[in-house]
Amino acid sequence: MSIKIFIPRDSAAVALGADEVAAALLAQAQQRGLAIDLVRNSSRGLFWLEPLVEVQTPAGRVAYGPVTPEDVADLLEAQCHTGADHRLKQGLVEDIPYLKQQERLSFARIGVTDPLSLADYEAHAGFAGLRRALDMPATEVVQQVLDSGLRGRGGAAFPAGIKWKTVAAAQAAQKYIVCNADEGDSGTYSDRMTLEGDPFMLIEGMSIAAIATGATQGYIYIRSEYPQAVAVMREAIARATAAGFLGADILESGKTFHLEVRKAAGAYVCGEETAMLESIEGKRGVVRAKPPIPALKGLFGQPTVINNVITLASVPVILARGADFYKNYGVGRSHGTLPFQLTGNVKRGGLIEKAFGVTLRQLMFDFGGGSASGRPIKAVQVGGPLGAYVPEQYWDVPLDYEAYAAVGITVGHGGIVVHDDTADLSQLARYAMEFCAIESCGKCTPCRIGSTRGVEVIDRLKSGDHKAEALLRDLCDTMTHGSLCAMGGLTPNPVLSALNHYPQDFGLAAPVAKVA
Asked: Which residue has the higher pLDDT, 101 or 441?
């Protein structure tokens, strides 16, 4: 009888040596005459424990980690394949507190299954939502998404069902579903984990969107820095098409949906939906003026649903278990869960899927264990490189869209980057302006010129020219209200939050304002 062992093969685990551990395990097992059934799953998001080796036992899957190739012989000697004690033993995977305290809806299969096994996917409730959607009128599929309260997980938090309803009502011979997987925000990786760890979930979500809106063609726009994700998605699409879950006759329903991967060109601004459309069309990634909105005139001028990975990955469970099931997670108007990505100067960085309402303090200390340096945490950037720096006074505010907006913070894609008390917020603010100057598409003056001037003005302020503070604030106001898209419009967020809450880092004596 073979011994079933799981070792992740996603980018994060591989970067930490998972391939070498797998090779060592197979070699050592052969020397000992052990029959090993090695499953290359994906990381569960407990990155401080990677490579994490899991062994199937009668009691459940037992975890050992972090494992190096040099540990493998010792683990087998200790009979790890029976779940025996070892210095690297973490116990039953499902009992690890970091995982046990989560609400995993979208990430329920991540780390559990072989990402490219259709049988595994179906054995864990895969395609249940698609099958239900095929048995419902398209209008009812849209209504389920509307009733669930699902909002876009890419940053703007716009209700997904309203986009779908708009595209469904549009009259056109061709409609498109586009998945924005150009995950370029600092400290974010939930899209990558989904693409590499549960690709069929995204395929299912996009197929449901197509059925609901009448679209027949879809594109997944994946950032060029994710070669493993591109390869996995392409293979998953091929397998799903061969099995009848995609193509000209989905599950013999008469419905058609074809899906392709498009590799991004490496521009941060292509995370903006209209610049992404330009890029898919083979043009330079430059922001389009709106209106018209993409839902009416999007890809190739046709009605287009644009959602990001986590939005579309949330759809299968909504259709499979009903809108009310999903809506009952969260607080206020923020329904469901969000995979928070904890990074930076933190002891236990990783992915934490929780219902809206959790606080930054809980994420950083209950899950993250505080700073990796052991020093006090000074600031937390939430929502990527264009997100605000959050001081301690807001760490107990429930994480939901409205509560955060009320104090000038955006939840964004759920990225959380922790900084200890050695961080210089003036340098981080300068970096935000410099980043915008480099990544701007250049179409509008406030973003293109404003970010360049912003770097210069911050340098003046840091050199002791305190009059530059008023100029910096005026410049930020111009960028916020005059930029064509969120690239220039949100760059002032990290700058003003740093200036307001950490004035001493700029050589200023006291805060001028109390809001971010």
From this structure: 101
Distance CA 456, CA 281 (A): 36
Specify the 3-state DSSP secondary structure of 346.
coil
Cβ contact 14:58 at 8 Å: no
Q: By percentage, how much of the chain surpasses pLDDT 70? A: 98
Residue with tokens 């219902």: 355
Instruction: Tell me if 65 sits within 8 A of 49, measured CB to CB.
Output: yes
- Give the dihedral sign, CA 391/380/386/475: positive
pLDDT digits (tens, 9 = 90+) for 307-348: 999 999 999 999 999 999 999 999 999 999 999 999 999 999
Give Cα 324 distance to the centre of its chain: 24
Based on the number of CB atoms within 10 Å of its own CB, is 119 exposed (0-12), middle (13-18) or buried (19 or more)?
Answer: exposed
Residue with tokens 């006291």: 510
For residues 480 and 492, the answer to whether their CB atoms sit within 8 Å is: yes
Residue appearing with tokens 């287009």: 304
Cα three-residue angle 212-214-216, rounded to 5 degrees? 115
- Please give the structure tokens belonging to residue 440: 């701007």
Q: Report whether pLDDT(516) > 60.
A: no
Classify 479 as helix, strand or coil.
helix
* Phi-psi group of 53: left, alpha or beta (phi > 0 → left; psi -120 to 50 → alpha; rest → beta): beta
If you search the block for the tokens 């606080």, which residue do you land on? 359
Q: Each residue of 260-273: pLDDT tens digit?
A: 999 998 888 888 89
- Is the preceding peptide bond at 292 cis, omega within 30 degrees of 0? yes
Is the CA virtual torsion 68, 109, 101, 226 positive or negative?
positive
> CA-CA distances (angstroms) from residue 121 to 46, 112, 194?
22, 10, 13
Residue with tokens 């061969």: 242
3-state secondary structure of 8: coil
The three-state secondary structure class of 299 is: helix
Q: What is the DSSP string of 377-426?
A: EEEEEESSTTSPEEPGGGTTS--SHHHHHHTT---TT-EEEEEETT--HH
Residue type, position 118, single letter: L
